[in-house]
Design a protein that fits this description.
Helix content is 70%, strand content 7%. By secondary structure, it is mainly alpha-helical. It has one domain: Rhomboid-like (Rhomboid-like fold). The strands form two sheets. The protein has a two-stranded antiparallel sheet with strand order 1-2. It has a two-stranded antiparallel sheet with strand order 3-4. It starts with a helix and ends in a 7-residue tail after the last helix. 39% of the residues are buried. It is found in: Membrane. Its EC number is 3.4.21.105. It is an enzyme of class 3 (hydrolase).
């Protein structure tokens, strides 16, 4: 594991652990629409280092561990950090826009940033295959996972499924897509078909945002 991925994981663990044991600290730095609209913008960043519980923390950090070094191997540490933190902020801003009238809406987690890293990895490794604990012998193409998760995030936002920040996931994924193209434009020639496949639903989301009430 690269040092930068390790440092991000350690920062998440320490910050989250502090939040687990200090409700005042947790409430001060979590994402909350009303507080952010009043100018407490640090929450857009700090909320990405807090988690609800150990399961939430472990899932996000394991995912970062599995995908982080793959992205670094191609784009390097500076671009990896740009993708990570830009997607963290993009996920927060997307959530802020979507929940702008829900002043008490709150959320925590690195999911937006992690989704951005996942999307970057999928675009940089067009032949990527994924499998999951419940289906260990089934390899799922990376772009199928990306498309599926994007659609699920939109559905989850509309139906308010679970205590999950679906809007941050969607914002992070879109951010990862756009930023990866901006930083590594060569994917438009080497992986053009994959870029188009992943881009179609993103374009449709923006075209039909009003109908989807996004």
């Amino acid at each position: 594991m690269s040092q930068v991925v390790l440092l991000i994981i350690v920062a998440n663990v320490l910050f989250s652990y502090k939040g687990f044991n200090d409700q005042v600290f947790f409430n001060k730095y979590k994402f909350q629409v009303g507080a952010i609209r009043q100018g407490d913008y640090i929450r857009l960043l700090s909320s990405g280092f807090l988690h609800v519980d150990f399961n939430h923390l472990i899932f996000n950090m394991l995912t970062l561990y599995f995908f982080g070094d793959n992205v670094i191997a191609i784009v390097g540490v500076p671009y990896f950090l740009i993708i990570y933190f830009a997607c963290l902020l993009f996920g927060g801003l997307f959530s802020l826009a979507y929940h702008k009238n829900q002043l008490y809406y709150s959320a925590v987690g690195a999911s937006g940033a992690v989704m951005g890293i996942i999307y970057a990895a999928i675009m940089l490794y067009p032949g990527m295959k994924l499998n999951f604990i419940f289906f260990p012998f089934v390899d799922i193409p990376g772009y199928v996972f990306g498309l599926g998760y994007l659609i699920y995030s939109v559905y989850g936002m509309k139906k308010s499924i679970g205590n999950i920040g679906h809007s941050a996931h969607l914002g992070g994924a879109i951010g990862g897509y756009a930023i990866t193209i901006a930083l590594t434009p060569e994917v438009l020639t080497t992986n053009l078909s994959l870029v188009v496949i992943l881009g179609i639903p993103i374009v449709l989301i923006f075209l039909f945002a009003k109908k989807l009430n996004l």
